């Protein structure tokens, strides 16, 4: 299970500050860019019907469209 | 006493000039359109739609795009999250050939006739071109006959010839903005360098796809200038993007283009480019939400990118296909494009 500590849009701590804008972008047009567990920048590949995002420490996430 | 000369309405002028005669608006006329009050927008969009139907027909061209090489670009286009010169969270990535084949198949399955392979580079090197060559071969071996376009930055004549030999039928290279505004947006290469690549593409017989991004701090006059500069190029297709203020880029705090302004721009560009494929590209989700997309389709747009973009996500393709069905707009078939 992934513990969400960091915002995957801005990379800052979820507990720190307001991430309403980040959440809106993530729900509309952005794949995650930062690992939620360690805030590393992930290697993201967007394809016509999905995306994958890989953290060097915590592995790969993908969209399930 | 003589009566004051009657103010000529730019939409009346456009009806006679663009709709009847197929002659695009001049720069001064485009500016007048961009300055129309909000209550004239419905008239503008209705006319732009008529122009599109008259000079382009009812079909909508559907395209999918994919990023073959993401991020780490040495150029400094200030809007771009893939420039290596800004602290953007976008990291470098390469899509492998099986991934490219899958992306092409996903695109074909939507009914799209165009698949554009894009790389974030100043221009292609040998490795990139050989990846594109292998990719196109693999897409064909997969039984996929979709038309292939590329967007790989600035080209040499030799590279243009290589792409033609690979069967690439259209090349995308955006001028991005008005010539007078370009130096504010990009400092690592010039508008003229981009223009030169476009001329080579045209001369080699490839279709020219060239558009830009609205909302990068250009004035309305510069927007009009850009529309007319595009018309001068006579591109086969113009993709119209609206700025996505991406984190880490110099434009991250720029405002999103407001819906009414975006619609005015759509209408004005159609009236400047009556015969061109005018494509809704990136940023429409932020600018319009779900509602405005329809207004754009009824306001001069006759092509869309479905699914995701290069680094940003779009609406699911099916949502756009449903919209076209609801609007009774037929999707251009592959046979019509050959
Ligand atoms: S050349 Fe293309 S990929 Fe590179 S920074 Fe400019 S827009 Fe981005
Ligand atoms: Zn955040
Ligand atoms: Zn991690």
Characterization of this structure:
The complex is a heterodimer of chains A (65) and B (338). With 65 residues, chain A is an alpha+beta fold. Chain A has one domain (1-65). Chain A is built from 1 helix and 3 strands. In chain A, strands 1-2-3 form a 3-stranded antiparallel sheet, with no helix packed on it. Chain A is flat and about 30 Å long. The mean pLDDT of chain A is 93. Chain B has 338 residues and is α/β, with parallel strands linked by helices. Chain B has a single domain, classed as TIM Barrel, CATH 3.20.20. Chain B is globular. The mean pLDDT of chain B is 95. The chains are: A alpha+beta (65), B alpha/beta (338). The A-B interface holds A 9-11, 28-31, 33-34, 41-51, 65 and B 64-67, 70, 89-93, 95, 99, 102-103, 106-107, 110, 244, 247, 285-286, 306-314, 316-317. The structure holds iron/sulfur cluster and zinc ion (ZN) (2 copies). One zinc ion binds at residues 35, 37-38, 40, 55, 57-58 of chain A.
Index terms:
heterodimer, A: 65 residues, alpha+beta, three-stranded antiparallel β-sheet, 1 helix, 3 strands, 14% helix, B: 338 residues, alpha/beta, TIM Barrel, ten-stranded mixed β-sheet, 13 helices, 43% helix, binds iron/sulfur cluster, binds zinc ion
Quick overview of this protein structure:
The complex is a heterodimer of chains A (65) and B (338). With 65 residues, chain A is of the alpha+beta class.
Could you give the order of the helices and strands of chain A?
HEEE
> Count of DSSP helices of chain B?
13
- What share of the residues of chain B does DSSP label as strand, in percent? 5-15%
Average pLDDT metric of chain B: 95
Provide the gyration radius of chain B in Å: 20 Å
Kindly name the structural category of chain A: alpha+beta
Low-confidence stretches of chain A: none
| SSE run of chain B | HHHEEHEHEHEHHEEHEHEHEHH
Number of helices of chain A: 1
**Overall helicity of chain A:** 10-25%
Global shape of chain B:
globular
Strand proportion of chain A:
15-25%
Biggest beta sheet summary of chain A: 3 strands, antiparallel
**Number of β-strand runs of chain B:** 10
InterPro entries (chain A): BsaP_C
Cofactor (chain A): iron-sulfur cluster
Function (chain A): Required for the activity of the biotin synthase BioB.
Protein name (chain A): Biotin synthase auxiliary protein
């Amino acid at each position: 299970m992934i513990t969400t500590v960091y915002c995957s849009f801005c990379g800052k701590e979820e507990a720190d500050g307001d991430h309403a804008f980040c959440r809106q972008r993530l729900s509309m047009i952005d794949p995650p860019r930062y690992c939620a567990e360690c805030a590393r920048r992930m290697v993201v590949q967007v394809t016509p019907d999905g995306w994958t995002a890989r953290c060097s420490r915590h592995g790969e996430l993908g969209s399930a469209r | 006493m003589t009566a004051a000369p009657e103010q000529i309405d730019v939409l009346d002028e456009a009806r006679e000039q663009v709709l009847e005669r197929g002659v695009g608006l001049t720069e001064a006329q485009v500016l007048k359109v961009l300055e129309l009050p909000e209550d004239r927008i419905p008239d503008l969009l209705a006319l732009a739609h008529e122009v599109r139907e008259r000079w382009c027909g009812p079909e909508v061209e559907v395209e999918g795009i994919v990023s073959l090489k993401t991020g780490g670009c040495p150029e400094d286009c200030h809007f771009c999250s893939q420039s290596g010169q800004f602290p953007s969270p976008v990291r470098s990535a390469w899509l492998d050939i099986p991934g490219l084949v899958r992306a092409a198949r996903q695109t074909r399955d939507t009914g799209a006739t165009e698949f554009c392979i894009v790389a974030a580079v100043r221009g292609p090197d040998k490795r990139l071109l050989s990846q594109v060559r292998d990719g196109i071969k693999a897409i064909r071996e997969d039984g996929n006959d979709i038309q292939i376009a590329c967007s790989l930055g600035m080209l040499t004549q030799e590279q243009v010839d290589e792409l033609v030999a690979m069967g690439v039928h259209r090349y995308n290279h955006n001028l991005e903005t008005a010539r007078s505004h370009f130096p504010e947006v990009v400092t690592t290469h010039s508008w003229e360098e981009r223009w030169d690549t476009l001329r080579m593409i045209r001369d080699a017989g490839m279709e020219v796809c060239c558009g830009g991004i609205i909302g990068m701090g250009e004035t309305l006059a510069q927007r009009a200038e850009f529309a007319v500069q595009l018309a001068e190029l006579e591109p086969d297709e113009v993709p119209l993007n609206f700025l996505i203020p991406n984190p880490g880029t110099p434009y991250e705090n720029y405002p999103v283009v407001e819906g009414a302004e975006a619609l005015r721009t759509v209408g004005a560009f159609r009236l400047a480019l009556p015969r061109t494929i005018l494509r809704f590209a990136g940023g429409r989700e932020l600018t319009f939400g779900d509602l405005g997309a329809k207004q754009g389709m009824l306001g001069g747009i006759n092509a869309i990118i479905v699914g995701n973009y290069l680094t940003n996500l779009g609406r699911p393709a099916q949502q756009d296909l449903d919209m076209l069905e609801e609007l009774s707009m037929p999707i251009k078939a592959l046979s019509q494009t050959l």
